[in-house]
Amino acid sequence: MIKFLLWCILLVLCWPLALVALVLYPIVWLLLLPFRIVGIAVGGVLELVWGLVTLPLRILKGIF
Fold first, then answer.
1. How far is residue 14's CA from residue 54's CA, in Å, rounded to a whole number?
2. pLDDT digits (tens, 9 = 90+) for 6-36
3. Contacts of 11 (CB under 8 A, 6+ apart)
4. What is the 3-state secondary structure (H, E, C) of the chain?
5. Domain residue limits, the chain
6. Claim: this prediction has a pTM higher than 0.85
7. How far is the C-alpha of 35 from the C-alpha of 42, rounded, in Å?
8. CB 18 within 8 A of CB 7
9. pLDDT digit string (tens) for 42-58?
């Protein structure tokens, strides 16, 4: 919602720039999509490694 309101303000102040932003936003979003996917995958791998590292401690806490 905030992005839309900022775009409306830009439309009032400088409509050509607002139209350029309207056209370029989906292109930039598509270009950045692979980086988001890689970030999600790296985050998942780091969570898995952290879980494996802390597993012995959690098992010992469960016994005692």
1. 54
2. 989 988 999 999 999 999 999 999 999 999 9
3. 18
4. CHHHHHHHHHHHHCHHHHHHHHHHHHHHHHHHHHHHHHHHHHHHHHHHHHHHHHHHHHHHHHHC
5. 2-63
6. no
7. 10
8. yes
9. 999 999 999 999 998 88
The tokens describing 25, both together, are 């936003």
Burial (Cβ within 10 Å: 0-12, 13-18, ≥19) of residue 9: exposed
Scored b (16 or more CB within 10 A) or e, 13-45 reads eeeeebeebeeeeeeeeeeeeeeeeeeeeeeee
Cα(14)–Cα(2) distance, rounded to whole angstroms? Answer: 18
Residue with tokens 């830009």: 10
